[in-house]
Design goal:
The complex is a heterodimer.
Chain A (H helix, E strand, L loop, with lengths): L1 H11 L1 H21 L6 H25 L1 H9 L4 H29 L8 H25 L1 H24 L13 H28 L5
Helix pairs in contact in A: 1-5, 2-3, 2-5, 3-4, 3-5, 3-6, 5-6, 5-8, 6-7, 6-8
Chain B lengths: L2 E11 L4 E10 L2 E6 L6 H8 L7 E6 L2 E2 L4 H6 L1 E4 L11 H9 L7 H10 L13 H12 L6 E5 L7 H16 L4 E6 L3 H6 L2 E6 L2 E7 H7 L1 E6 L5 H4 L2 E6 L3 E6 L2 H7 L4 E3 L3 H8 L6
Parallel strand pairs in B: 3-8, 3-9, 6-7, 7-8
Antiparallel strand pairs in B: 1-2, 1-4, 4-5, 9-10, 11-13, 11-14, 12-13
Helix pairs in contact in B: 4-5
The chains are: A mainly alpha, B alpha/beta.
């Protein structure tokens, strides 16, 4: 059942899937070509964030355009929990697709660096934080308000980021003394915990929502 | 007869509207019409019993099971048709069907194909190319292809032409004769119910006004026409609703014999469901 809900999300944005797929493929090599100093890791990070964010936005837009379709699905044996979980898995599926694409690219294109498990784990954590924050807010505020709130954050980011970079950051030197295996396991588990907590919150919010 | 749906003390509140202590039952083997004017609370009631909107209080039992505890089992046994536009319009009929079908444990591909052929719908067609009537038929094909025991529909005939409305009513009659245990549908087009309903529930301003068998209901009311000169305040009180002109009056009453005692030369006619509905709602009594 869950598989069909995830498939449904891809189907309703099928027009954009190809575009995003092409972008996910092109971002790392284009970055290597235009800005070699940011090639590799940054290209991968950008391709994941772009792909997940764009497709999630398109799915949300379609559900905003056809709210009664979601209502009909909730009138079938699909539970609201399933509806919410399918969104999280949809995002993780895009992340996995980006990992596969980047993995293949690093084998084919010299100069993109290597795609190790450490990079994928780090990106999993970043993706978890992103959807872990974004989805509960969207379930609470709805598509329009969330889009507006995130647009404000994006516009404000040139001002906020330098401020954050000037602030004293936590001393993470102690991580060097811990075996890498434990650090990466911790990051991976942390990502999962964020997803679990976020999905529980989203389910709670969505269960209390009056559908259109 | 067993009750396939029992709603008790349902309360739900919005800023400017509320359902007040809504209670009713749906007996097995009946087509039940849920009638009321626009804004009376029909859709809110249906959505509340399906768990699509939250409620302040109330108990909802389908087939003897509580919707809170057994929502999935219950929804597996009911077919739902919501009002217009309940699909992702850019999907094809086959794609939307695949999503819906995966939710039901007893989905019958054969039944679905039969309905699609009967309704002359192509699986490859995009939903946004369907007319309103075709969308309704497609919604019915989805709702009836998993051996549903109860069919719940929200304003299914609204905006449809008389031909398609007639076809819809035939499908409902066929569904019941093929072993369906019940149909519950809301409408403000009461002429459809004159043809097929067994039971009627009237809601007005968020309250249930009556639940009655259609034939009993139609037998207990009469339309009375008479000479205005013989009308007085005492006789007027015998009517639920009365309209007057310089020449005569037309009213609906449950006390026809008493009216006849006061005015012997009246014309008595059988009412329609619409007459009874208007006679029992607040705005209709003016």
């Amino acid at each position: 059942m869950l598989f069909h809900l995830i498939k449904k999300d891809f189907l309703i944005v099928k027009k954009y899937v190809l575009i995003v797929l092409v972008a996910a493929i092109l971002i790392p090599p284009v970055m290597r070509w235009r800005t070699p100093e940011f090639a590799g890791t940054f290209g991968f990070i950008l391709s994941v964030i772009f792909s997940v964010f764009m497709l999630l936005q398109y799915v949300s837009l379609k559900e905003y355009q056809f709210p009664k379709a979601t209502t009909l699905l909730c009138a079938t044996p699909f539970s609201r929990s399933m509806m919410v979980l399918s969104k999280y898995i949809f995002c993780i599926a895009i992340y996995v697709a980006c990992c596969i694409i980047f993995g293949i690219e690093t084998l084919l294109i010299p100069g993109l660096g290597t795609s190790g498990i450490a990079l994928f784990i780090l990106m999993f954590f970043v993706t978890s934080v992103f959807i872990g924050i974004y989805l509960p807010i969207q379930y609470k505020l709805g598509y329009e308000k969330t889009k507006f709130a995130f647009a404000v954050i994006i516009v404000a980011s040139p001002f906020i980021l330098p401020m954050l970079m000037r602030m004293d950051t936590a001393n993470l030197d102690f991580l060097a003394s811990i075996p890498a295996y434990f650090v990466y396991s911790g990051v991976l588990v942390g990502g999962f915990i964020i997803l679990v907590l976020s999905s529980m919150l989203s389910i709670k919010i969505y269960n209390e929502t009056d559908l259109a | 007869m067993d009750d396939i749906l029992k709603v008790t003390g349902l309360n739900k509140s919005y800023d400017n509207f509320s359902l007040k202590d809504v209670s009713f039952t749906l007996p097995e083997g009946c087509i039940t019409g849920f009638i009321g004017v626009n804004g009376a609370g029909k859709t809110t009631t249906l959505r509340s019993i399906l768990g699509l909107t939250s409620r302040i209080s109330g108990h909802i039992n389908f087939f003897g099971m509580d919707i809170e505890k057994d929502a999935r089992k219950i929804k597996d046994r009911i077919g739902v048709v919501l009002d217009d536009g309940c699909f992702y319009d850019e999907l094809s009929l086959a794609e939307m069907k695949d999503v819906i079908a995966s939710a039901y444990s007893a989905w019958s591909e054969r039944d679905f194909k039969e309905y699609m052929e009967r309704f002359e719908l192509s699986p490859k067609q995009k939903i946004n190319t369907l007319s309103k009537g075709m969308k309704m038929k497609y919604a019915l094909a989805l709702a009836l292809s998993h051996n549903a025991e109860l069919l719940i529909m929200d304003e299914p005939t609204s905006g449809l032409d008389p031909l398609i409305r007639g076809q819809l009513l035939t499908i409902l009659t066929d569904y019941m004769s093929n072993g369906g245990k019940g149909v519950f549908f809301s409408t403000h087009i009461t002429s459809d119910l004159d043809k097929i309903a067994d039971m009627l529930i009237l809601i007005d301003n968020g309250r249930i006004v009556f639940q009655e068998e259609k034939d009993t209901l139609l037998d207990s009311y009469r339309i009375v026409k008479g000479d205005m000169r013989k009308m007085d305040e005492n006789i007027r009180k015998l009517f639920l609703r009365i309209s007057e002109t310089a020449y005569g009056f037309t009213g609906i009453t449950q006390r026809v014999s008493e009216v006849q005692q006061y005015i012997p030369d009246i014309i008595i006619e059988r009412p329609t469901i619409e007459d009874i509905m208007l006679g029992n709602i607040e705005g209709g009594k003016e």
